[in-house]
Amino acid sequence: MLNFKNVTMRDAGKLRKYYTACDYRLCEYSLGVKLMWSKWLHPAFAEACGCLLIRNQIDGVYHFDYPVPGPAGDVDAALTEIEQYCTNLGIRPVLSVVPKNEALDLMTRYPYVRMSNERAWRDYLYRQEDMANFAGRKYSGQRNHINKFKKSYPEAVFIPLHAEQRELIERFWADYEKVFEKTSEQARHELDYAKKMLCLIDRNWFCAGGLMYKDRLIALSLAEKCGDTLIIHIEKALYGYEGVYPTMVQSFAAYYGDGITVINREDDACDRGLRISKTQYHPAHMGAKYRLELGNELDNLREIPTLETPRLTLTALRSADKDAYNVLCLDDERNKWWGYDYREDLKGELTESYFLDVAHTDFQNKQAVNFAIRLDGKLIGEAVLYRFDWRGGAELGARIAPGYAGSGYGTEAFAAVADWALYRLHLERVVAKCFRENQASYRMLASCMTRAGEDDTYYYFEKLV
Length: 465
Fold this sequence. Notes:
7-stranded mixed β-sheet, Aminopeptidase, 3 domains, 16 helices, 35% helix
């Protein structure tokens, strides 16, 4: 199972290893955003299949970035790791801030998915040559402001910022604090982290520069190169210097534009002033960020159906089944072959209705379907369709009470549920497994499924449409 670790400054180098060549062009695929907005994103990371996996937690819900591959990364395998991680936790996978091209690929990967693409979170993407030159009529306003700035402050020059300018940077923050007008918690947090990130410019993770006028900085910017994109994390200037912002934008884009095609000035977070300002720079396009919440075939199932076989009836579990179902669930000898010990997953007190409640809750949450296997109306076992893999597959298991074993009831019920799952629930595949030493289960599965592999513990089977 994936082991996620909270993102901290100490992990910055590990993340940059992946973000350096990342070509998604969205600001979330950068170290700077993970650090600056950690209080809201609560990012954690893991490395798997040669990819960087990021798990954010927003309003108590896990959201996963699209995997960022390294040189030999396998994105498909990394997505499978995320899917299995969520299945093990009993939660629906949510893939967020997914780039457009990758979102289209995911739509073909998952049969059931709900997708959104909010305007508020789209990034402003500009051509590097546009920002470095401001050529053409549409940029006449920016050129006029720059000309006024140069006329008013002819001594102002752009300089790259490095660790040795730390005192100069600290003096800028002191000047900036005097004119800083925003009072929201988010604005204050962003400013505090901006200061911390400027302290990291000696690590070669970021590039920074500023406008010097006389002996002081009057503007500064910090960015991160990710693939062919320059992601601008910080743009600050002292109020009162007319034209300082477009001058800073142009100077920074020109100085750090080598090998850069796109400049990402991030989203506007619904701030009216930012939206007006960023729009006036005429973005080449808006970087869409898709959110995909995965579903499964049970989302369309309102109630558990009744299935008939030559000897058996399969239905939903009922309150009257409580005693017989408890005997089945508490049978340690049978559970050994079931591969499950309720004690390891017990939530709360083991009440008389505990197992029935779990089965009903799993169906309500669309995580599993528990069929009661009945002979002449009496519960003699159960068949469970569970571990939906979000891509058209699910696992099936069946168990029969000891007094009814050896008569083929398990095979009969198992085959009926498998057919229902494939041709009524519309799964693409049903899988199953049994312990290598469990010959009875092996014979049952081999009679109605195709063997698909083995390892030191299990034999694996599948049944396809």
